[in-house]
Design brief:
This protein is α+β, with helices and mostly antiparallel strands. 28% of the residues lie in helices and 30% in strands. Helix 1 crosses helix 10. It is globular and about 90 Å long.
Length: 599
Amino acid sequence: MSERGAISYQDRTGAPARAAFVRRGRGAPVLLVHGVGMQASVWADQIEELSKRYDVVAVDMLGHGGSSLPPADARLSDYADALLALIDGLGLRKVHLVGHSMGALVSLEFALSHPSRLASVTAMNATFCRTPEQREAIAQRLAALEDAAAPPAWAATIMRWFGDPVPASWSRAAATVHALLDAVDPVGYARTYRLFATSDAAHRERLAGLTVPALFITGEGDPNSTPEMSLAMARLASGSRAEIVPGERHMMSLTAPGEINRRLLAFVAQAEAARAAGPAEPAAFDKGAFRKALGSFLTGVTVVATLQEDGEPRGFTANSFTSVSLDPPLVLVCIAKTASSCPVFSKAGHFSVNILAESQADISNLFATRSADKFARTAWRKGPVGSPILNDVAAWFDCRQHQLIEAGDHVILIGEVMGFDHAPANPLGYCRGAHVAFGLSLDSFSAKGGRMRVGAILEHERAILFVAGEGGRLELPEGASLGAGGDPASLSGRMNHLGIKADLGFLFAVFEDREAPGATSIYYRGRLLEMPEPSGAARLVPFDEIPWDRLRDEAIRSMLRRYVRERSEDSFGVYVGDTESGTVQTLAKSPTKPLAQSV
């Protein structure tokens, strides 16, 4: 049985977007991307066969099926961004990517931009560096499409893809394609076709840098995605190969599904075996993926400060801080060589490191700007060595410069601690570009503004407490804030009204709603102290009886699936991200006694 769903995200213009998909099977993930005018359902034969061995996901390309329209000035990167949002949203680390026609162009764009997320790429019936005659022909088709007042009749398209006349053995496949073309969104089709018509040389200078296993495959008789094109791409992409399928044309996944499935299964199996045999990471370094991976490390937030030669204070926000030595007491911070403050700190004889409290997210944001009056808007004093010490921080260290080390594009500033102090305040956390508070205080989240939803995952003996919602839905206890029992809009007030008595403990998830910018959801895990009344609105549901389809949305389903999994593994973490994608930072084993009101 195939699963149907959609992942929401923001496109490069900031507009809400969605990538619809069909999913079936288990195993290594294989992502299928159709061509212009089609939908995920065109891969029905491949989904049926490949899902016997693999986790197969077929996406509706932007402008097609259930996916949103691409921007008016559509780029290949927009379609690749949709794939990345889908892969992240489904929690997939690496996929085998298979693209057909326009989907092949998108797949190659993704492979060249995000090689660390791929196990292999297959470009099926791909176009590459059309001849002048081919470019003139498609330019005429594009002009006719954009000038037409009515949708295309599709007869010419069917003829190009299947032949004229269509062979009797291909008539059913041709009828399937015709029906999909009739159903296509005209705006989505026009924007995508324009890109398809003008992007055949988009990867000519980049294919030599392709670092993932690649298969270029086309039909012997395809007049527009010719064998010569696939052979030329394979020559450019080191370690790739080309295969030409005898007797086939453009829609060979429909006209020869058995043969195409056999070849796809063989290639994917070979790529999987190569991965299992030894290290096969891409030679090209993906800086964007590297930054994202580093952002998964949950850190504190500091303000590093010193005095300039003229005596004026200078400071910046940093999370690249760590201890180095106890004897002598040394700490370090890292400063980018491109930072305007780098020359100042490199020459300074002393500096301070201020570890911010969870209520000081506004100070973190202030010192991350180029504002000239940062210290005029922040209370501070001089430390033992003379460096600026901010008020009300969780801890501070006043240091004398001990050593300066150049490392790549950064400078490592090592300081000998000459004075320090700390307070009982909870520290401010940072992960994946967002501030994180670890205790039950929500001040740092409130400071961000926007709407908030605070909920609780309350467990008793491997069962979760749910509240009856509208339309038969099951919901977690939630409120507009943590609040107190007397506030009916708060989580505490809601629990009090329902007669729920529980101990709240660790933070479990913090995520933003991509479809409602500024809306933040915060969930804690806790322990139920008293069982709810059997006739009440709240009831316990065992882990293995949770009716997932009755939960509000995919974000809640994903969060609770993680809770059940981590509970069974006795290892919990904090999720930070949005409703579609994020990271989990492991914290601790599950508690054996009630947790305190702060951690």
